[in-house]
Design goal:
α6 runs antiparallel to α10 and α7 runs parallel beside α10. The chain starts with a strand and ends with a helix. α10 links the parallel β9 and β10. It is elongated. It has 16 helices and 17 strands. Helices cover 36% and strands 20% of the residues.
C-alpha cells in the first residue's frame, strides 16, 4: 500500500515529480490554474480554448512544468454543485493510475479547490480529503505474490508516496483524520482483494479460518472456528454435504465485534466461502473455471469488513459468519437427487450440485440465529443469472424488509458499490418446494429468475428479523471503476461500512 502524508505548503512552492490539480468544469482556468498558466506561457488556457481540457469529471491533461513540480496533472471534477465524495474517489483513482503509468514514484495532490467546493457544507471537506486518499490508494493495488521479480529485466514503475497539500493549518487536523480513515479503508479492501486473488491451493477453508484468527488476535474481535466434528454435532448436514467431496475440511468461522452496549442486538453478516467451486458432480464447463477461486468473495468481504469495523472502532455490535468449504467431484461427493438435512431440520433435495452456495449459507444463516441479531445480511457470489440482470455494474439485493433494502441502496449510491432490488414474491417461494423433501436447491425448468430463486431458498433459513441477501457474483470480479483493477474488486467492504455507520 502506498504511503500517504500531508504537507502545509503553497501549491506553487511545492516540489514533487507530479502535482495533481483538481479542476472545475469551466470555460477558462481560474485560481491556482490561472497562476500556473502564466508559468506555462498560456498552455493551460490554450487547452481550455481548444477544448482539449474543460474540467469534465475524470478528464485529464498532463504537462511538463518548468516550476518546482516537474509535471502537472490536471484532472476534472465537473460542476461544483455536482461534486460528491464518490466522484472525488474516482477522480483521484484516475489521476493516480495515469501517474503510475507515467512511472512517477512520488505524487502530490492539491486540496485547495476541494476546500472551496466544501465551503458552507459542514464536514464535507473531510469527506472529500478522505475520498482523495482513498481513491488513489485503491487504484494503486497490485497483487504480485507469485511473480518472480527481476528489476533489471523488467523495471516496475510504482507510485510509492502520495502527499496531500493541505490548504491551511485550520484544515490540518481534519486532513490527518481523513488520511487515517482512508488508509484503514484501503487496507481492508486490499485484504479482501488479496484473499480472492490467492489461488485455491493457497486459500482453503483452513486458510480462511487461520486468517480470521489472526484478525481476532490483532483487534477487538473474538474468533471461533467450528470444525467438522462440531458441525456434525449441530446437524449441519447441508454445509457438510457440500464439503464431503473434498479432501479439504470445512470450517464455520464466527467473528464477534462488540463496539456498543452488550444489550444491543448485533448485525449479522454472513459470507459464502466456497474456496474453489468446480460445480461438484454437476461439473462446470472448463472455460474460466480458474476464476472459481473467487467463489469465496462473500467470505473475503465479511472478514475484511470485520477488520475495518474494528480498526475504526465503530460503536456497533457485529457478528461475522463465514461458511467455508470446497465443492469438488469425487467418489464421496453429493450427487444430484441426494437429500440433505440442514441444521434447521429442513430437508433439501439437491437437484444440482453447482447450486452449492445456498446449501452452505442455509446452515450459516440458521447458526446466525443463535446471536438473536437485529438484522442479517448475507453476501454471496450466488448466481450467474445476476450477470444477465445487472452485468458488473450493481449487485442484486433481495430481502424481507424494504427499509433495510433502502438503506443499503443509499449506502451503495454514496460509495459507488450500488445495489438493485429484485422482488421476492410468493410465487418464487412456492417454486422452492420439493415433492420428496422440504425444499429443492434449484427451481424446476422453465421457472427462470435464477437470482431470485436463490434468495427464495435462503429465505427459508434467514429467520424472522430483517434480512437481506446480496448477490455479488457480478461485482466481486470485473467490477469496472477507476479505483478497481482487473480481477477482484473487494466489493461490499465500503458498502457495509457506510450502511453500518448510517444505521447507528
Amino acid at each position: 500500500m502506498i504511503k500517504i502524508a500531508q504537507k502545509i505548503e503553497q501549491t506553487l512552492e511545492h516540489k514533487t515529480e507530479c502535482l495533481i490539480l483538481t479542476c472545475l468544469e469551466e470555460k477558462k482556468p481560474t485560481g491556482v490554474l490561472k497562476k500556473l498558466n502564466d508559468t506555462l506561457k498560456g498552455a493551460i488556457s490554450s487547452a481550455f480554448e481548444s477544448k482539449r481540457f474543460s474540467g469534465k469529471p475524470e478528464q485529464t491533461l498532463l504537462f511538463n512544468s518548468p516550476g518546482k513540480a516537474s509535471n502537472l496533472l490536471l484532472v476534472g471534477i465537473g460542476k461544483s454543485k455536482d461534486v460528491t465524495a464518490e466522484k472525488i474517489c474516482r477522480v483521484a483513482a484516475t489521476a493516480a493510475k495515469l501517474a503510475e503509468k507515467s512511472k512517477f514514484k512520488s505524487i502530490s495532490a492539491d486540496l485547495s479547490l476541494l476546500e472551496t467546493v466544501a465551503k458552507g457544507r459542514g464536514g464535507f471537506y473531510g469527506e472529500l480529503a478522505c475520498a482523495m486518499a482513498e481513491g488513489a490508494g485503491l487504484a494503486l493495488y497490485h497483487f504480485e505474490n507469485y511473480k518472480s521479480k527481476n528489476e533489471k529485466d523488467d523495471p516496475v514503475g510504482r507510485v510509492e508516496k502520495l502527499t496531500l497539500l493541505t490548504p491551511s493549518k485550520a484544515r490540518q487536523a481534519t486532513t490527518e483524520k481523513s488520511i487515517a480513515r482512508a488508509e484503514k479503508i484501503v487496507d481492508a479492501v486490499h485484504t479482501a482483494r488479496d484473499l480472492i486473488s490467492h489461488p485455491g491451493n493457497t486459500v482453503t477453508p483452513s486458510y480462511l479460518a487461520d486468517y480470521a484468527q489472526k484478525i481476532g488476535r490483532k483487534s477487538k474481535i473474538t474468533c471461533k472456528v467450528l470444525g467438522k466434528k462440531e458441525m456434525e454435532k449441530l446437524g449441519m448436514g447441508s454445509l457438510l454435504g457440500v464439503s464431503q467431496g473434498s479432501d479439504q475440511p470445512p470450517a464455520l468461522i464466527v467473528l464477534e465485534y462488540k463496539g456498543a452496549a452488550k444489550t444491543k442486538a448485533p448485525t449479522a453478516i454472513v459470507g459464502k466461502g466456497i474456496t474453489f467451486d468446480t460445480g461438484g458432480i454437476s461439473l462446470k464447463p472448463g472455460g474460466s473455471m480458474d476464476e472459481m477461486k473467487m467463489d469465496m468473495s462473500g467470505a473475503a468481504t465479511t472478514l475484511a469488513s470485520l477488520q475495518l469495523i474494528s480498526s475504526l472502532k465503530l460503536r456497533v455490535n457485529v457478528v461475522g459468519i463465514v461458511a467455508a468449504a470446497e465443492n469438488m467431484p469425487s467418489g464421496s461427493a453429493i450427487k444430484p437427487g441426494d437429500i440433505l438435512k440442514s441444521m434447521s431440520g429442513k430437508t433439501i433435495e439437491v437437484l444440482n450440485t453447482d447450486a452449492e452456495g445456498r446449501l452452505v449459507l442455509a446452515d450459516a444463516l440458521t447458526y446466525a440465529q443463535r446471536f438473536k441479531p437485529k438484522e442479517v445480511i448475507d453476501l454471496a457470489t450466488l448466481t450467474g443469472a445476476v450477470l444477465h440482470a445487472l452485468g458488473h455494474h450493481a449487485a442484486a439485493v433481495v430481502g424481507n424488509n424494504s427499509a433495510m433494502i433502502q438503506k443499503l441502496k443509499d449506502a451503495g449510491d454514496s460509495t459507488g458499490e450500488r445495489v438493485w432490488e429484485l422482488p421476492l414474491w410468493e410465487e418464487f417461494e412456492k417454486a422452492t418446494k420439493s415433492d420428496i423433501a422440504d425444499l429443492k436447491n434449484i427451481a424446476s425448468p422453465g421457472v427462470g429468475a435464477g437470482t431470485i430463486m436463490g434468495a427464495a431458498f435462503l429465505k427459508a433459513f434467514a429467520g424472522e428479523q430483517p434480512w437481506t441477501h446480496i448477490d455479488i457474483a457480478g461485482t466481486a470480479w470485473g467490477f469496472e471503476r477507476p479505483y478497481t483493477n482487473k480481477g477482484p474488486s473487494g466489493y461490499g467492504v465500503r458498502l457495509l461500512l457506510r450502511y453500518l455507520e448510517k444505521g447507528r
